[in-house]
Please model this.
Amino acid sequence: MGDKGFSRQQWVTLFVFSLADFCSAVCVSLQAPFYPHEAEKKGATATQYGFVFGVFELTVFIVSPIYGKYLNKLGPKFVFNAGIFTTASCSILFGFLDKVEDTRLFIGLSFAIRIVEAMGNAGFLTASFSIIAKEFPDNVATTFASLETFFGIGLIVGPTVGGALYQLGGYTLPFVSLGGVLFFTAVLTFVLLPNHDDHSCKDSKGGGIRRALRVPSIALAAFSIISASCSIGFIQALLEPHLRPFELKPVVLGLMFVINGGVYALCAPAWGWLCDNHLRPKVVTAVSAVMVIIGFGLMGPLPFLGVAPSLGLISFALVVHGVGFGGEVVAAFVDAHREAVYNGFPDNLDTYSMVSGLWTSMFAFGAFVGPSVAGILYDHFGFGYATLLVVIMHVVLLAAVLLFLATRRRPAGHTQTPADKEKGGDAPADQEKLPLLTGSFDSSYGSEDNVSTSELVVW
Model:
């Protein structure tokens, strides 16, 4: 595939996914600059609207493994399209919440709409990640990262256009207009997206999420996903209150959210290329964790640093975090797929669906913890101390990854990446038996031929 280029079906899949990722990111992120302010006008606290952000991700966390388990039976295309239609419809409905004056009813309806929207979003994400792994087995990291670029651009456009439309026409206009665009995109994907059913593996048993999480390397990748999504959920919920003392206009406030998404969009493809060709994913995770720690340490800034917050410092912190966040997201995704196949899971759609459900679920769990716990910390201790949540999580992640890399035995001569193969380098005999998906992975577990299920829990 790499030498002959992509097939027509692969190009169509890339186009559809790029468009869908962009539009869904716009709808997910557009409310960040003004929903907290609108909620406070209704009498809601940071704890309450923090949970509104968080319940979306909590729902995704709960339902994603279910989608992953039954995706092959339902069909990836059906789940993908149904998810986008649901997300678009709920985005439009969310735009009419400003008509509700009662605080409890406003928060209650916010919860209800976000929960249904999350169910659609979970289906869309799980199906898309599974299709990526199946359609592009030799370039999982690069393809995933390239598509994440469009998601990152959506994160830029969402707050910017959303803030501008909010300033132009009030609360309802951003949701109705941008939700309408996503609805049109849903129709387009229904027509263009090829079928991706994997009939060859419908009767195979891949192994569940619990079994996958018993593999230490997969569990560590899951914690990396949780930590990364916790940081972005924190920013989505609390950056606007943190910037409120600067009295920024809605458009300028939206541009502050652009910084993070823009840097992420630019860096994600580079991280994907590095994971596919040169660096072990866990090395990328360690480097990225350091960057997130620095970014959040300066964003507050941490109280014991003795530095006053400023727009310049916060902007720089968002840049550093965006680079680190991109590395964590891309590395964790490709690492989980490689480790699953390497540790005896079958190389088919069942496994892709299971790992995709795991990734989506763990990302959602972190994105739930981020705004929910951060909202409570912000109410009681302020933004600076609240950032310790993300900092401490990443210090733990960094320590765990470094310990893992230091103690894990590596087979002699096993340092190959896909780039090495193209240069004609020799590979160990057991590595030549592995699927191309695992081409750059190094491990002490041994090949599929000599690893039993009971040995999967052994370091």
Remarks:
- The mean pLDDT is 74.
